[in-house]
């Protein structure tokens, strides 16, 4: 079976040099391995994703010379499969709703030093786990916003040590067989009242459903892989190999953002840059 690579942008802005690097690296690796290349539109967050950004993704990638298989998988068309995964975790007693906003959580943990996840957010203190079934149901029925969280301690109790094969390199040089540390994320959010799946849940389901064998993506997602390995284990899904690549940075060393025009593919194209120029700029 040929290896299956995928590039999975979110249509919440225009693509920049960092996306070009990730997309072209996936395409190059797939070609060299005689593999397949899939494109996936990660548009689960309806509040931030827009059709014009999706149209621009196709246009910019085609301009770069990329070819991908169709039909393209769009997450917004697969809510039922995420729901089924969530139900399966719920049936194992691993999901509970929490009702605090991000600001409330920040206040709750402000008094003393408090552990933070790899992205720097304070770990959820687990308060809503204490609510009775009746209190939960009343709050949900009241229309209050909520997040559905993974009960990390309960989830870990049922699985052994987890690792993944890293063909790239982590932020501290991690490579080869890397030990997953899902506990570092605490009770992660897997869905919200109005969002049927978080990034973690959707990416794990889609990589499995699309048969991805090789996940090539930015180093900023390196430690998220710990959560992905845990979800794969809980949902009986195969684990792909991973290759996290360094991020393209601007002249000041900062991570590129979708709103910085200087490194946007559309702007570079308007200024007369060629796809070969883009390749050169990202070192491919
Ligand atoms: N959609 C994610 C992003 O735009 C990438 C997800 C992945 O490659 O796993 O950053």
Descriptive notes:
The chain is α/β, with parallel strands linked by helices. The chain folds into 2 domains: 1-77 and 248-284, Rossmann fold (3-Layer(aba) Sandwich); 79-201, Alpha-Beta Complex (Glutamyl-tRNA Synthetase, domain 3). Helices cover 35% and strands 15% of the residues. It has helices at 17-32, 51-63, 79-91, 102-108, 133-141, 152-157, 199-209, 224-234, 265-270, 275-282, and strands spanning 4-7, 36-41, 73-74, 95-98, 147-150, 163-166, 176-179, 189-192, 214-218, 241-245. It has a 5-stranded parallel β-sheet with strand order 3-2-1-9-10, with helices on one face. It has a 3-stranded antiparallel β-sheet with strand order 4-5-8. Strand 2, helix 2 (51-63) and strand 3 form a beta-alpha-beta unit. The longest helix is centred in the first third of the chain and has 16 residues, at 17-32. The chain is globular and about 60 Å long. It starts with a strand and ends with a helix. The model has no long low-confidence stretch (mean pLDDT 95). Glutamic acid binds at residues 8-10, 42, 203, 217, 221.
Q: What is the terminal-to-terminal distance?
A: 27 Å
Instruction: Give Rg in angstroms.
Output: 20 Å
Q: What's the number of helices? A: 10
Low-confidence stretches: none
Q: Helical residue percent? A: 25-40%
CATH superfamily of the largest domain: Glutamyl-tRNA Synthetase, Domain 3
Largest sheet: 5 strands, parallel
Number of domains: 2
Record the strand order, biggest sheet: 3-2-1-9-10
In the CATH scheme, the class of the largest domain would be Alpha Beta
